[in-house]
Amino acid sequence: MDDRMRRVVEEIVSEMDGGLSRRDPGRIDAVLSKLREVWMQDPDMRFGQLVYNLYWQMPETKKTGEVWIDMFYVEDDAFERRLDEVIREGWKSPKP
Predict the structure, then answer these.
(1) Which of 30, 41, 43, 72 is a Cys-bridge partner for 91, taking CB atoms 3.0 to 4.6 Å apart?
(2) Mean pLDDT of the residues in the chain
(3) Which of 43, 31, 59 is closest to 91 using CA atoms?
(4) CA distance 28 to 76
(5) pLDDT for 78-91, tens place per residue?
(6) What does the pLDDT read at residue 74?
(7) Rounded Cα distance, 86 and 37, in Å
(8) Where would I find the H helices in the chain?
(9) pLDDT at 92
């Protein structure tokens, strides 16, 4: 596909999605860096355990009123805010 055709296709796609911006790929490094910092506070914790506990402690995961956590719907910026809180206040790992 030549450049002119690519621009036309991108313009059409942009119009179809209402011009909504895509997620910033720069968020990935920011979130991973903060996640690493939090994980280093408790390096014996397994990755899945850490992420699950971080989500479980977020107000956004309790909006549905369910007893389980649906991480699928939590936006990256909300998770990053949670990481910022943990970095600022320290990790409070749930006791088994």
Answers:
(1) 41
(2) 80
(3) 43
(4) 9
(5) 899 999 999 999 87
(6) 82
(7) 9
(8) 3-16, 26-39, 47-56, 76-89
(9) 74
User: Is 61 buried (19+), middle (13-18) or exposed (0-12) by CB count in 10 A?
Assistant: buried
Q: What is the pLDDT of residues 3-46, one digit of tens each?
A: 776 776 667 666 655 555 688 889 999 999 999 999 999 999 99
Are 42 and 50 within 8 A, CB to CB? yes
Contact 71, 61 (CB under 8 A): yes
What are the Cα distances from residue 21, in Å, to 24, 44, 69, 79?
8, 38, 27, 19
**Cα separation values, 60 from 3, 8, 48, 65, 96, Å:** 42, 38, 19, 10, 23
What is the length of the chain?
A: 96
